[in-house]
## 1
Amino acid sequence: MNRFTGHDLDCIRGERLVFTGLRFELAQGEALVLVGANGSGKSSLLRLMAGFLRPARGELRWNGASLSEDPEGHRARICYVGHLDAVKPVLTVAENLGFWAELWGGGLESVGPALRAFGVDHLADVPGRFLSAGQKRRVNLARMAVSRTAALWLLDEPTTALDRAGVAALGKVLAAHRGRGGMAVVATHSELPLDGSKLLDLGYFAMAEVPV
Amino acid sequence: MHRFANPNRFMQISGALLPWTAASTVLLVAAGLYLGLFRAPPDYQQGESVRIMYVHVPTSWMAMFCYTFLAGSAAVGLIWKHPLADLSAKAAAPIGACFTLLALATGSLWGKPMWGTWWEWDARLTSVLVLFFLYLGYIALVNAFDDPTRGVRAGSILALVGFVNVPIIKFSVDWWNTLHQPASVFRMDGPTIHTSMLIPLLLMGVGFTTYFFWVWMLRVRTEIVAGKIRAHRRRQVQRAPVDFAGDGRAVSTEG
Amino acid sequence: MTDSIAAFFAMGGYAFYVWPSLGLTAVVMVGLLWSSWRGLRSAEGTLESLRAAPTPQGTEASGRPE
Amino acid sequence: MTRLACILGREFRLAQRHGMDSVLVVVFFVLAVVLFPFGVGPEPNILARIAAGVLWVAALFATMLGLERLFQADYEDGSLELLMLTPLPLEGVVLAKVAAHWLTTGLPLLIAAPLLAAILNMNVAGFLVLILALLLGTPTLSLIGTVGAALVLGSRRGGILLSLLVLPLYIPVLIFGVSAVDAAIGGFGVRAQLLILGAFLLASLALCPWAAAAALRQALE
């Protein structure tokens, strides 16, 4: 029964105190949706969870153990989807996804089903530079399906550039992931089908007045 | 060690020390110059041109001192993530660069009467020239980013990489210099410096050090104030200030 | 008296090297000091003007003394 | 280790697809060297005397050409972030990048150098040592260059700034590289210079990945 918890986290990015005293808890199969105004720190929190940023104060724990003790172990169990799609223009879609599949233990055989899950399997041999933004986003999201070892998915506004069919496909994959005992933290503005998910309003943890 | 950087303690301490460093700089340099120019005897070989030593040697000391200070602050900034340490490194670099420039200029002015050329590929002058490029690299890197903290952190890493390389550069330039150039005839520090020359030299050295701390404090305070200005700008940018409704519930005043 | 002053300035024939190096050192060091001092003054001035002018929204929630 | 091999494989495939880059680097190297006779004059024994220095300085500049694009492409399209999230330590990713950079720039230089040495009428005794010195020197140049490339990531003036940061750190390699070749031509022993070049290589192999990884972490915060 995996538990991912955060204890009174402070996040400083550049010179800005983005949020302070933030607490959250996530159990197996659950999803956490981050809401809040622009600049309230949704992306910062996701990058903190992924390990790009170290909290200025407080700590993140996985099953009670602090993440700073085993950063590499933590990196093996997350799949992070940011704003950029990481699709190499010179490599074909299959090569792009194959690379990530090998890195996260999914193996080359998981590439086909992942592409099919997001409806881009017909593009397998097309070099990345010919893809549209929506197609690139689907290839990027397909990376989640090949990350076999990733228990925790961190999605930063995954529905941008996706059409309705894409959002539905994403909803299905997320539900399957949670069904298998996975966890997801999603920062989104659109109504992504995430039934029974927890809400975290980052405005609540904003520092009202930065001491100057 | 997290403390949302509250630099007021530094502001108080530096505020108190500024007048003292200023006064001691003026006194020390004035005394050093007076003794150096009027009282100290000319050199039996070089005659009056030895008086350039009273500025060339202290500036060379300071060129090395500032880079060590810069690398030290960078190390503290990187290891303990203390924001003030990064600012201290950023403030020290221009001073170090000026001292290195002066060391090169006075060295070449002193070299002309002694060695007959403005520039001499002597091992010391060459490594000071490379040190000058390291300073320029640091200053250029620190100012090459939109986000100032990003700049000083990158600069700190460069300062450490550079610091590791300073002895290597010195060694390789010495080797290279002995291959190409017979060891320069003129020995900078001479057999033993006569006390009447040593005292002004030390006075100038200490005076330049207090000068360093004087300008360094001014520049660090400027960085701190600039940080506060940026914080003000950011608060103006945040259109929707979040008002706590008193019962701990966040109410966003604007949709 | 006068010739001793002239002799002093002649610097034993090295005047052309001694005075420029002293002068250059003075110019650079005083220049750096002055520019640092002026930089601080102008920064403090900007900060004062920012603090004096009320921020545009007016309803600045200051949960903490300035 | 398989993950390192996997990243290496991708870097080579990318480099191969961008085949033009390594060709351009060699063309630049040849051009830079060929310019010197026009500047210094075709006098054979003058050229022979400065041949080693010209080759090494041109190799330095050619190495730096390939550095700016080292992380920039991955940084802009988001792959660098994901590479940082692989269970492989970031230093491993940096080493893979250095290996890819060396193979696309260092190795071609190594192959082109003897031909250009001949053009510059360099004494034949120096050829073998030139190759040995370049073999030890160019990886060091790639390693130190990677630190520079990571530091200027995301800054406004990438290219020029990179050369200002990296060139002073290249000076020791340049000094010993050239003195190795000159010693060989002069008939002296070259063991000391080659050993020192080897020492520089080992030292930068240990320090540079760590420094570049630290710089990348700053850039990706």
## 2
Amino acid sequence: MIENRPFLAFLTHLVLIIGVVIVVFPVYLAFVASTHGSGDFMRGLVPLLPGPHLVENYSFMLNEGISTAGAPPLSIMLLNSLVMAISIAVGKIAISILSAYAIVFFKFPFRLLAFWIIFITLMLPVEVRIIPTFKVVADLGMLNSYPGLIIPLIASATATFLFRQFFLTVPDELMEAARVDGAGPMKFFRDILLPLSRTNIAALFVILFIYGWVQYLWPLLVTTDSRYYTVVMGIKRLAATADSEPQWNFVMAAVILAMLPPVLVVILMQRLFVKGLVETEK
Amino acid sequence: MASIDISGVKKVYGGAVTAIHSLDLAIPDGELVVLVGPSGCGKSTLLRMIAGLEAITEGTISIDGTVVNTKEPAERDIAMVFQNYALYPHMTVRGNLEYGLKNRGTPRDEIDRRVTEAARILEIEPFLDRRPRQLSGGQRQRVAMGRAIVRQPKAFLFDEPLSNLDAKLRGQMRIEIKRLQRNLATTSVYVTHDQLEAMTLADRLVVMNGGRIEQVGAPLALYERPETLFVAGFIGSPPMNLIDIDDLRDKGALALPDGSDLVGIRPDTIQLSPPEGQHLVLEATVELYEPIGGESHLHMRLDGSGQLIVAAVPARTAVTEGSRATLYVSMTDLHPFNKETGQRTD
Amino acid sequence: MASIDISGVKKVYGGAVTAIHSLDLAIPDGELVVLVGPSGCGKSTLLRMIAGLEAITEGTISIDGTVVNTKEPAERDIAMVFQNYALYPHMTVRGNLEYGLKNRGTPRDEIDRRVTEAARILEIEPFLDRRPRQLSGGQRQRVAMGRAIVRQPKAFLFDEPLSNLDAKLRGQMRIEIKRLQRNLATTSVYVTHDQLEAMTLADRLVVMNGGRIEQVGAPLALYERPETLFVAGFIGSPPMNLIDIDDLRDKGALALPDGSDLVGIRPDTIQLSPPEGQHLVLEATVELYEPIGGESHLHMRLDGSGQLIVAAVPARTAVTEGSRATLYVSMTDLHPFNKETGQRTD
Amino acid sequence: PNVAAQTEIAWWHAMDAELGKKLEEIANGFNESQSEFKIVPSYKGTYPETLTAAIAAFRANEQPAIVQVFEVGTGTMMAAKGAVYPVYQLMEDNGEPWDPSGFLAPVVGYYSDTDGNILSMPFNSSTPIMYYNKDVFEKAGLDRETPPKTWAELEAMSRQIMESGAAPCGFTSGWITWVQTENLSAIHDQPYGTLENGFGGLGTEFTFNGPVQVKHWDNLKKWADEGLFEYGGPVGGGDAPPKFYAQECAIYMNSSASRAGVINNSKEFEVGFAPLPYYDDVTTDPKNSIIGGATLWALNGKDPEVYKGVAQFFTYLSQPEVQASWHQFTGYLPITNAAYELGQEQNYYADNPGSDIAIKQITRGTPTANSKGVRFGNLTQARTVVDEEFEAMLAGTKTAQEALDAAVERGNQILRDFEAANQ
Amino acid sequence: MQAKRTIFPNKILPYMLLVPQLAVTLIFFIWPALQALKSSFEREDPFGFRTTFVWFENYRRLFIDPNYVGSLSKTAVFAFSVTVLSMSLALILAVAVNRVLRTNRLYTTLLVWPYAVAPVVVGILWWFMFNPTIGIAPYLLRAAGIDWNHRIDGTDAMILVIIAASWKQISYNFLFFVAGLQSVPQSLIEAAAIDGAGPFKRFWTIVFPLLSPTTFFLLIVNMNYAMFDTFGLIDATTQGGPAQATNILVYKVYTDGFIGLNIGSSSAQSVVLMIIVIALTAIQFRYVERRVQY
Ligand SMILES: Nc1ncnc2c1ncn2[C@@H]1O[C@H](COP(=O)(O)OP(=O)(O)OP(=O)(O)O)[C@@H](O)[C@H]1O
Ligand SMILES: Nc1ncnc2c1ncn2[C@@H]1O[C@H](COP(=O)(O)OP(=O)(O)OP(=O)(O)O)[C@@H](O)[C@H]1O
Ligand SMILES: O=P(O)(O)OC[C@H](O)CO
Ligand SMILES: [Mg+2]
Ligand SMILES: [Mg+2]
């Protein structure tokens, strides 16, 4: 469209640049802090330019950690986070795609009831029912274990809805063609539906990976054994002690390490990420 | 190859909507039957009942003499071509063609033979390794056809297979389908709501309306002698003009059969100079002159009733908009109907 | 009301795709010009440059004598009807009609007067308080028209305004648009790729191809005397048969102008019995007989070259598929062309 | 030794930084001294966090064998009869030596139940003291060896420090509850609650809204507004130590156990140690300060084998060498008389001036009912209320009197809840 | 509810397919929710030795407790501010990005990643910036003559958590607004331009009203986010203080339950929260059902 308004173009970029600065600055500061020595935080203001201790701080946190701040070596916690995030993503996808398939492609008594039971999980975020959920997990002997970290979080109405939504857009004719071509339900699921859902699955995986990675309260509750700590929860305790003991360099190194994997996923898989996000929330 | 017998078939959806009212139709082996009718008249429903995709509420459908009412689609040995083609988007063209054969456990070399053959016939060899989305609309249509013919089924069922193509391509594919069906001589049921397609493809044309059959017959027979008002209005383009007998000046002289109260006049039978033999005379004012190349359409308003009628006249006919015209129609070109019953009266 | 002058206009998208190659076209005040051409030939691009929605790469466009190249759409005082209507979904019909007037600060009573008037003309008074989604396709189309006419702009621009309607409605609206434009006498540019629409609506028809104008003229003139091979093939349905002169038996006797190497024959000028005067004779085998009601199409294969040609013959012509036919074409019905240049040679 | 046969004993604690390192050293010491048991210490956050984590874990049957509970949790733990394995019984059952009289008097006094039994193993007892920055004092023109004795002196010195520009702030403090309220009450012989500050049973009520406490809070508010005092945050007051380390505040009041951190983080200036100040217009004879820090509780529900290890570990902990080294490194009190004596023999107190301030302060004079300590059920929660009310006062939404009245009222509600749940 | 036109006739298979999800849902969602309901009528000692049925005592106490009522209003203020702040900033950025064609991808990439940062980490980042001793924010504020003390001043603390929570949520809102803007048909904007509307007028009269489905959706989602997903953020910054000034409902459930060990009250709060969530979800669901946009 023909538009003769140069000022507007300038304003647009200005707004965007300010936006980017606001978004990036806190992390820049964290990064800077993570490259200094501990003593640098005892002299008033935080440093604004990177210091020389980057490698030292990060390798210290990765390999040794600070046991007296509740932080075992970060490499262990990162690994736990990875296990947790991946398992949650895979688990959620697996159980939701099956249930969405049942709900969309079959008619059976209690179909509506099943739908509502699943829908209810949308309404009950773990934060509002922590104590009884914790108790159930404890009674099942799942504290301090990967299953305890993972299974209670894999029921997902969102993913079920996404798949349901997607399945509804799969043309009826495709299933009819497959039936005429002699395929039964599981064959149709495997040969046609699953391959068609590939990009949805990938997009969902990205989103759910992030969901799993950023979990805080749940790992905080169900792990008392440092072998199962995840990085996001571990970091909090580190930060709490940094109040009285200024080792912000270590805390911020941990912060950067805890942020890096999911942020990289977002940046590298931007297309899938956006698709996953926008679609799961619809 | 097989005959299809539909007898007393009825379809009620969800206990409420009756889509098909007790319908009978026998399709002999090798015939291509076209179902036409307005949207919602039950064409697809009927086809889908034949395919086994929809349960039959009442009556029976037999293929090749066997009642198939409770058989799964896979067991009926029919092939179907869908409006949106329903190609498996994640499989190559070859994969699409093979899928049905593989599911039936056809031996590998037989599969290859048939796929090669079908690809040759349909000229889709160059695309065998492409995915459907890499094909144009016409090419996809061919693949859909290919998927049906590799199966060598007892019957082909087509549900508006050409309606997603543009006019030009539709014309071409129509001719190809016709040829193919002639060569394979497979019993076929073809659903469309495109008149031209219906007229040109059908061995026999079935005009449906509101879940019932209005008329069955050869295409030209239906055009020339529509048995009901519905068929008269539905077939032909521009549509037949329908004029109330009371609006005709010389209705006395017409000598139409008893019970006639409407006459139908096809636009191309309206003449501007008096023909030989007995004929009808109408007076009208020309409202719009539309040249469309080989012929022109005259949109006119009849004196008296003020009804709009259309005549198709040769291209360079000398008429100006706003002028008055006298129109002539041979008595033999009149189609008399009874409004009430909707039936032809002669 | 105003004339539109397009001179030397060129459009290059993103420095790479040349959508329009230096194009000239003068549209006098009050004329309805139709742009037709195959998909991607630049019709919309040209229209959008006139509207100010697309920057002009080279050349000038003037409206009413003023060069508008750098003016914003709002300053050009034109109205546009979009293919998808582009009605504001959150406003009522009335709101849609008023929006353009309000933006221009038209006084309240003048707005009311004009909206009432437009609603009356277009018969949309009953829907004035509905939202667009509560209207049928045809009604929406009317509102879109209404939004254009209330503005009383210098020119109307239409980009395939009817292509979202079904065939029947399209026919009706076409006639209405024609009437309306005649009454308002507003300069109009109308883009379509529907031949019938183009033929019937245009005062002047502009056939475009690959970003260039192929031919400009009255619709029938183009049909009867296409100046280029492209126009010959594009206008007319079924399309003109194009036959290599070398494939004609008696080419010597033809006495075609120098440089002719192709002749075009319209399907409806092929006759089955010899006409008076000089004529061409062709021998062919009938492959397919397509009855389409008032006439029938014969698909035939020419002897020798084996080329497929189509003839439009009266409905009940007695031919059987597979039989041989002798075809006659009057010398006056031949359209000679040069393959190389694509130009008509007589 | 067969490593696989080692019995692991989980020990949850709240010792971070230097203290945590030393604690791990002790655990290691024990682990190396024998091969049958392995103590596995794990840091669980602050004292309140550790306590609540342990209770939650107990409910989930995932409790550790040993948990470190600060003095404030004592009331709660003592009431939880089914959950704890009293230490005297544990030692007896496992045939380990147990002699309560070897502990320092304030320790015995605080941790004995109504029957005179000690239920948990004393480990790290402390009392708050005052740290000051000698360099800043000098810069401000004060005598670097003369810390303030009374609050009036402290106020004056702080003002001089600020006005001279030697530091932007006079003083800060950890634990507003423990240092500025509970200890303040004890030192000035003011009651904190009825029934001997809660020692006497469940029916107790808070009374810390007396004139002395009100006056002190009033002052803190006034000084905060003036900038003489900077608030270090709720609970332990995490913001306070950096203010002192960064030489922002010249004076810092906190647990004697902050000593290790202070020494480690004050490389750029010299630190002095002193008793807490008092109001000389209220008393000329300041009483002893009260005990803080924590004891180790054995929790029920483990194998007898585990308790055997726990008992052995407790014996190990009581050894004068272990105790003395812990005490000397951290600043915690020497828990046993033997450890104190050992320090004296080693000349430790003479070599490290100020290192015996805490023990002298906690043992000065004769303890009264008001300076014996405070021991209430749910005191953790009540302390949260005190912190909140203190913050409300600092924010100016309440006066000191209103804040303390509200704290008492809300605190009493918590006491009633505890009473109801434990009857 | 929608399903396919034709369906598979199998009887048992659908149940088998549903078992995993239903099992997880029933065990970890429905059952605990019922437990919460049950214990909201009980009083229990911290160690779980004694439980007494107390009828509505926990609820009664809740609603006469000024702290709880305060927490309700704090939550409302917090959720409302986070929603408004992050949505308006995001909208401005989205409109700007939508205007630049070429650099669009770059800006988007630079703006979206905070989505992947855990709320608790966001909290730490901002807590660090606002650290009273070394933080850059108090330093700048002091330089600007603003007396900032989020350790004492409840309003300052609230502002801090609002800023931090909004910061994280901008990227999310931004993406949805961009998607929303892209789904506004270009032809409508062109029609408005031809109808004589300038860029700002076009935005307010055409684009913004057409974004309303996105805006409404984001309103609900942001409320949800602010009310529940900010748990970690609060925990890493103010921990509800000073003097409960930032103690939002979800944090209070946790502190009263896990820290305060008052299971009964915490459960009653859970139940209240569940009712709020259910109401929010119901609104959202109704809206999803009617999503036919104009
Ligand atoms: N699954 C269904 N449930 C209820 N009614 C249905 C269903 N499918 C079709 N109908 C109804 O049955 C009638 C016939 O539908 P059908 O699809 O057979 O029409 P059609 O002739 O194929 O129309 P079209 O030309 O539009 O495809 C219609 O009234 C339709 O609304
Ligand atoms: N924004 C654009 N960027 C690059 N190329 C474009 C753009 N818009 C159009 N084109 C190209 O310019 C040429 C003309 O496009 P235009 O839309 O004018 O065709 P059209 O004649 O309107 O076709 P249709 O009948 O399909 O609407 C096409 O080749 C098209 O691909
Ligand atoms: O810091 P500590 O270990 O001396 O303990 C402090 C007090 O116990 C707080 O109640
Ligand atoms: Mg149909
Ligand atoms: Mg176009």
## 3
Amino acid sequence: MIDEVAARPMIEAQKLVKIFGVNPVLRGLDLDVQRGEFLALLGPNGSGKTTLLRILAALARPTSGTVRIGGWELPGEADYVRAQLGVVSHMPLLYDTLTAEENLLFFARLYDLPRGERRDRVHTMLRRVGLHRRARDVVRTFSRGMVQRLAIARAVLHDPAVLLLDEPYTGLDQDAAALLDDLLGEVAAAGRTVIMTTHDLRRGHALADRIAILSRGTIVYDVSCHAVAAADLPGLYADVTGAVTTR
Amino acid sequence: MSAPPGNAHSTPNKPSAGRVRRPVTAYWRAVGVIAWKDLRAEIRSRELVTSMILFTLMTVMVFSLALELDADARQNTVAGVLWVTVVFAGMLGLSRSLAAEKDRGSLDALLLAPIDRSALFFGKMIGNLVFVLVVAGVLMFALTVMFNITLIRPLIVLFVLLGSIGFTTVGTLFSSMSVHARARETLLPILLLPVVLPILISAVRGSTAILNDLPSDDWLPWLQLLVVADVIFLAAGYALFDFVVEE
Amino acid sequence: MAEYAEYMILGYATMAVILGAMVLAMVLRYRSLTREARLIEQIAIEEGLAGDREPRPDRA
Amino acid sequence: MTYSVPRDRALKGLTIAAGVLFVLAMLMDFFYVGPEKTQGEAQRIFYIHLGSFLGAFIAFAAAVVAGIRYLSSRESRWDILGLASVEIGLGLSGITIITGMAWAKPIWNTWWTWDPRLTSITIMWLAYAAYLMLRAGIDDPERRRRFAAVYGIVAFASVLFTIIIIRVRPDTIHPVVAGPTQADPSGGFDVAGRIRDTLFFNLFTFSVITVTLVWHRIRLENLAERVTRRKLDVLSEL
């Protein structure tokens, strides 16, 4: 039974269309991500990356098309999907008038973690992202890097099977980015399925198993990282998106 | 972190056999967690309640100056003063609490969680209700002193409670809509006042009848109307909130 | 008895005004829309665009 | 969505019927029934006061149905029905308010009294004016339709209170047509036969007028959408 279930991709999106007002943001996009696969999603601004992630995260409904995550269908079985989904987005999704510990405790309760485990789960996570000394400080006093690390701690707090990261590296300084690298490395090693959108081709290629390029609402390039050298990614990216945009 | 994904809580994949219990946080716990978070964030920052209370005291001053009346005329207007102030202070609180949540983007964090949308609605509503009741409490005390009419009586408290519940229910539903509008501060009163006026009238007429020690068949119909209104608006909030927050 | 007549006239007059205004507003908007539609069709023809010929906008 | 010929003809027939009924109703109001003994001529306003209120009630009820159907089916035609019925309902309830005031003057010799019935009609009018403000305030079309549907449903509660409040509040000085009133505890319709006929005819006429106006408004909105869509296609191809 396990292999039959395991064979099925963790994330399946078919013919996703999303139209805001009159302009189409997603134009019939198909995407499958296998269990435990780390997909780096590249693409210029306005190509629909964030919209795609919001649809996969059950935060937005597609105008048409179907989405299944972990075998659960959206939007009907959204609750099952939400229970196993961790999201890091542009916005920190944290409460700046609460302390780091209070924030994580709130999400631990919201995600219904077993009562006994909550406190030490929160503390292990804070230690893992290097914020245990600032546990009692209000998030408003945190730097951009610290907020991002806390956001990642929140995203993996309930041990989700799927992680959606929307440009997690934006605004991070060098060592915060380095810390984020091994955090994501560890997350990938734990067998989670990850989709990360980024503008950083080199870092995307280094971290991910597979690279996909999104342009004007559809996936225009999709290949495993082994099949393409990091060096010629920029050139390739330019033709695929450049070719499209300069017409 | 090293724990393999898909612990008991988040199922790795849709088990083919049988329905899994909906992994949704218990309804009332979700409501409690959200309301508790709003209150704790507010106790920490205290900006919302202080601005509402200052607004209330200033309004009471204005009314007491404007209504330099003899005793029995005051008897008939004090309930009106109470409710006009509660409504406007309440609207101040409503638009700030929802707007802050939306601007900070933390509304997404709540929409991501595996909880019923209506639990989110009632959590938010109860948070707002507490702020409104705090204002009403301060107000009743201030008015008792300024107008030297004993406002703090069981029946008046009942009317204040029922009126605040109705007002906050509709207020929370409408402020989650007006927060998306361009002129959100001006749109909320326009949307809210006409629909909430029947509650306001029932509460004022009922309270005044009690203050004048009239027999029960003078204020009982207003109490019944208030209860009916609360039930209708609670049901509407329960059924419609999902459509408001869905994208 | 008759002296109340002026209120009756006032009432009926307002009704007539409001109903008339509602109908008039719709007719005027309808006219401007059909004019606009005809204008667009001309532009379409002048530009020689394929654009399918919209069925003649229906009369009230 | 162009209209098939039969529906075209049906609307034309309905429009003519509405016009004829309206003229007949007016004739009845003035000639078929004599001035009422106590209120004199002013009593005639009563027919259109109640007729327009019934029309508005039907329109706002249609807006609730439209809201519920839109939220479940997400078809924009329900949203257009909602918009059309609220606009027509606003016009009609405007007539109800002003005729109410015109009627109040001779009987209670004041243009406006804070009588619950008059107040709640005005509250209802303001609630639906807010519906249009909400639509104007939201840019994203899909969200605007959703919010309008939600608000259209909740605002109907204020319509219900317009009717409930007269039952709950004995001190209302607004005479109750059906049901027990101060002056005539036995309730029911004891008004003279002619008045009753005229009243029912007016109620029927205003209902037909409401349906006709709403239907025309829907066609107007459909035309407007078709024209804008056509304009976008043509201009984008230039």
